[in-house]
Design goal:
Elements lengths: L1 E2 L4 E4 L3 H28 L6 H26 L2 E3 L4 E6 L14 E4 L4 E8 L11 E6 L7 E8 L9 E8 L12 E5 L16 E3 L2 E3 L7
Antiparallel strand pairs: 1-4, 2-3, 4-5, 6-9, 7-8, 7-10, 8-9, 11-12
Length: 216
């Protein structure tokens, strides 16, 4: 299901939590009443200052207890931290959950990203916001627009590559998380260039040749 930020995803059984919040609220209102009465007596010098200080302390303590009880009550409702799509639910009705239990997998599909491992020799040809063309099997002949979001500051010494994060525009929802796609990073452009089929190139060691057929 698609959810919006703040939507309730799960509710804990909260009977005891509700009772604890009501008890804390009752104790807070009693502490307020007691402090008001002590202040009225103190204005007529009928109680010691120590009693007034104690009443103020009890009100502060009751206020903290009430805040804590309301926080536990609020946390009995698990809400979506971001808008997106629930891709997996890890709990069922009646399950026990603890701190750290995984409850849902929530995908933020407002922006897709992909992580590429780019050879280190290309490091000086890349920069943030550089244009990237994306093509997946599901999009057919249509190419998606992308851009470089982040470039890792270090190179992996084992693979000789650096990690590049690509952002993808997909307003038509042509791709899904986990799909395979091809990426073309535009590092340079040449106007009025002569284009030939890649199959016409002849590789000889580090050199590349193209033969031209001419009439003699």
């Amino acid at each position: 299901d698609r959810v919006q930020k703040g939507d309730t995803l799960l509710a804990l059984e909260d009977a005891e939590i509700v009772l604890a919040e009501k008890k804390a609220d009752l104790e807070y209102r009693k502490a307020q009443h007691d402090l008001a009465r002590i202040k009225e007596l103190a204005s007529r010098d009928l109680v010691a200052k120590q009693d007034l200080d104690q009443a103020e302390y009890q009100l502060d303590q009751a206020s903290l207890n009430l805040q804590s009880a309301r926080l536990r009550l609020d946390r009995s409702r698990i809400c979506a931290p971001v808008s997106g799509i629930i891709s997996q639910r890890h709990v069922q009705i009646g399950n026990w959950v603890n701190n750290g239990s995984q409850l849902f997998t929530l995908l933020d599909d407002s922006e897709l990203i992909s992580v590429l491992d780019v050879p280190e020799k290309e490091i000086f040809r890349l920069q943030v916001n550089q244009e990237v063309l994306v093509k997946s099997l599901s999009s057919g002949e249509k190419q998606l627009n992308g851009w470089i979001k982040r470039i890792a500051p270090t190179v992996d010494p084992q693979s000789g590559t650096m990690r590049v994060t690509i952002g993808i525009e997909d307003s038509d929802n042509l791709v899904r998380s986990g799909m395979y796609a091809g990426f073309s990073i535009i590092t340079d452009t040449h106007d009025n260039a002569i284009l030939i089929p890649k199959q016409s190139l002849v590789y000889d060691r580090d050199l590349i040749f193209a033969y031209v057929a001419e009439d003699t």
